[in-house]
């Protein structure tokens, strides 16, 4: 008999078990949406103006520890997105001359967006097919968050860990 096995005794199961996760908080991959990620990470949107310099954008990315920033006009409307990848490409094209350039010169105009009710499976497919790692989340014309491919992967890994735990509990009993 394994040393870790302990037979049930009278009174076992009388105490309440605590559960850190439940079926309600861990949905199947096909049912999870962008909103589930935003509920966990929050909806803060970091933005920059198109007339800001790339130097200012680089500092913002570094200080906020993010890989992309949305570009908004004076009214807060989405006009583009600027990623680390955009900056690196321009650094290669214009060495020593990139930081004074404006965000408008490097940004991707009119970026794709997603809705909070979009499934994570569909979002991941769109991001993979489009070869981009960040997507603004828009609801009723207003930005309510930003989702990265890392957010999607992390959410799915957490769900897989929970599924593995459930299987272990089924096996052990």
Alpha plus pi helix count: 6
- The CATH topology is CBS-domain
Instruction: Report low-confidence residues grouped into runs of 5 or more.
Output: none
Structural class estimated from helices and strands: alpha+beta
Largest sheet: 4 strands, mixed
How many individual β-strands? Answer: 6
What Rg is obtained from the alpha carbons, in whole angstroms?
Answer: 22 Å
CATH hierarchy class name: Alpha Beta
Percent helix: 25-40%
Dominant shape: elongated
What order do the SSEs take from the amino end to the carboxyl end, as H and E? HEHEEHHEHEEH
The first-to-last residue Cα distance is 16 Å
Count of all domains: 1
Average of pLDDT: 85
Identify the strand order in the major beta sheet. 1-2-3-4
How big a fraction of the residues is strand? 15-25%
Question: Under the CATH scheme, which architecture would be assigned?
Answer: Roll
CATH superfamily placement: CBS-domain
Care to describe what's here?
This protein is an alpha+beta fold and 173 residues long. It has a single domain, classed as Roll (CBS-domain). 39% of the residues lie in helices and 16% in strands. The protein is built from six helices and six strands; from the N terminus they run αβαββααβαββα. The protein has helices at 34-41, 54-64, 84-93, 103-106, 120-130, 149-172, and strands spanning 47-48, 68-72, 78-83, 108-109, 134-139, 142-148. A four-stranded mixed sheet has the order 1-2-3-4. A hairpin with a 2-residue loop joins strand 5 (134-139) and strand 6 (142-148). The longest helix has 24 residues, at 149-172. The chain starts with 33 loop residues before the first helix and ends with a helix. 18% of the residues are buried. The mean pLDDT is 85. This is CBS domain-containing protein. Residues 1-22 are annotated as: Disordered.
